[in-house]
# Entry
Amino acid sequence: MGLLERPEVVVVRPEPAGREDLLRVHDEKYVDLIFRLSEHSRPYDWETPCSPEILEAALLITGGALAVGSKVMEGEVEKGVAMGGGFHHAGRDYGGGFCLFNDVAILAVFLKERYSLDRIMIVDHDVHAGNGTSDIFYSDPTVLFISIHQDPRTIYPGTGFVHQIGSGPGEGYNVNVPLPPGAGDESYMKVLKEVVRPLAEEFGPQLIISNGGSDPHFMDLLGSLRITARGFYSITRFLTGLADELCGGKYVLMPGSGYNPSVLPMSWYALVAGAMRLEPDGIEEPRSPPPEPDYVKKEVEKVISEIREVLKPYWRCLRA
# Structure
């Protein structure tokens, strides 16, 4: 039985996000620019095309996230999956990396305002650092943003270092976990257990949002991490369990990204199955994953130690 055929699954037919939704996060001049560029099918930059069709898709994806998030907060469903987005490279007044509007940030702000939330945790498990989401919430202590990504010295967008921890009242609430190339399932789970869990327990989120697709997969054509499909399942299964413990199960997964069509469907399926606490039947890798080298594991331990050192002034859980 496919995921969508299961009786416990509710399929939401989205309405496009409106201009007022975009303006919750984005600068008005930037929104106007994207609409003008899209009307004439002109790119924002060399890697971020605009067209009427791309704009329509971006608005539908964002609208879908708002609809799913609302159903989770209203208690109509326990877990929500908003497919195809995770446009985490878009900031308040800029786009990039194929991202026009930051649906992750728009969802968080929308739910904060509608449901008077003051503690939302966002976990970004994409291979690239979520620079746009980070910038949007950089001084906001009501959003704990944790980005687990490949070392930015080796991949776009070149930001997401441990020392980038937020500013002003948001200092300490922006957490970057840069992983060395070659890091795989074991390293991801180590980060989830030793960084994400203690921070989440101390923060006490009212909602958990996560985004990321298949680009950390060991066969992805852009990234250099070594996550398997089973690893993706473990990531979202961990996060959905954390939501069960800390915020009444309220969890929204926003899967998107991936640059190898031979593993993308399987990886997205694994992410969704983990979020829904379903067994990932039929997952078979095209080939065996390479082992995670010992020197990579040691480097990950160093990264975690550095995170503890940098963030311990802000978090009791990291002082032990």
